Amino acid sequence: MKNKGFETKCVHGAYQAESGQPQNLPIVQSTTYRYYNGQDVAELFDLDSPNHMYARLGSPTVDALEQKMALLENGTAGMATSSGQSANLIALLNICQAGDHIISATNIYGGTYNLFAVTMKKMGIDVEFIDQDISAEEIVAHKKPNTRALFGETLGNPALSVLDIEKFARAAGEMGVPLIVDNTLATPALCRPIDYGADIVTHSTTKFSDGHGTSVGGCVIESGRFDWNITDENGNKKYPSMAEPDESYHGLNFYEKFGEAAFCTRLKAVLVRDLGCTMAPMNAYLTHQGLQTLDVRMERHVKNAKAVAEYLNNHPKIDWVVYPGLEGDKYYEEACKYMPKGAGAVMSFVVKGGRAAGEKLMECLKLSSIVVHVGDIRTSVLHPASTTHRQLSEEAQLAAGIDPGLIRLSVGLETLEDIIADFEQALEQI
User: Quick check: bond before 158 cis, omega within 30?
Assistant: First the structure.
């Protein structure tokens, strides 16, 4: 069968048991792998063998997850990591070094914002934040000679802004840099950024990919389309780590040897080798298992979320609701374009009465969980200003779309009437 449907890819993609093999993906829980001659090991160190030697550099279980994520995102290769934060970090470190410049949308996850604005700044990498709603021409105007990447999130967390991926892709193309898109909240079930021009896609698989709150992890997927041989105005290669000899691999040129899988190959061979941000086999197994039901879970998430958003939007005690799936939302048209199956399961709202009323609502909820997490099968709530975005100044919070009294809601898979009844009884107490 060719051109299998997305649902079939979720269930059968990447790992398929041969005759007599286990139907479920095996958990290969071993730190090392045995060989019987030195030449086999030499080929591993020269990157001439697809086999394994040490679990920090991967395992058959992790490989299967990487292949499935690449398949679902329509990419050419994937690299699993220990967390979503490490996925974004190494994706950028793979092509950037001290003195380089990155352009990022402002409306991104608070942890990523802090990574870019504080930690990477200490590494000598300058990240400039821009309003993602400006024109492609205005984005390009921010380009510097040392600009090396453009970054954004499909769905901003928790601002719920929808990235105009095609606009960002045009801008990246004019600047001659890759577009990196974090697709965590949308998942490939709702949006596949590579189809709209993204060059690299990242995920916190901890969220909807796993979907059950069991496994921390991340993943980087490449499109295989970016020309890493591209040069700057002086004729020098912009990405020497990808397209010039690597001294730690006997002068190997990653792009020349691995082509459309060069980016992820170097991630594993260099960044994960040196930084050790490896995904554990058990986490890979559980995430792979979660992906098997991704499509049906997201369908239910979206159905529940839209109904809850409409309920809250019409409630007299709610000030406002931000959910791109609601008609009239600022990003409704972009959501319909990039996520025709639905705008995800996460929304933000403010109870009339501001911060105190919002905190009172969370205290009164019984079914919903107060957790620092989204993408779970359980309905979850959080107050970002005092938790996930607490390191930001109030001005930076507002710039990222975080109102002081804002509540982030991740709608789960419970019976819809039960979710609404929980909010109804809580709102009655305010």
Answer: yes
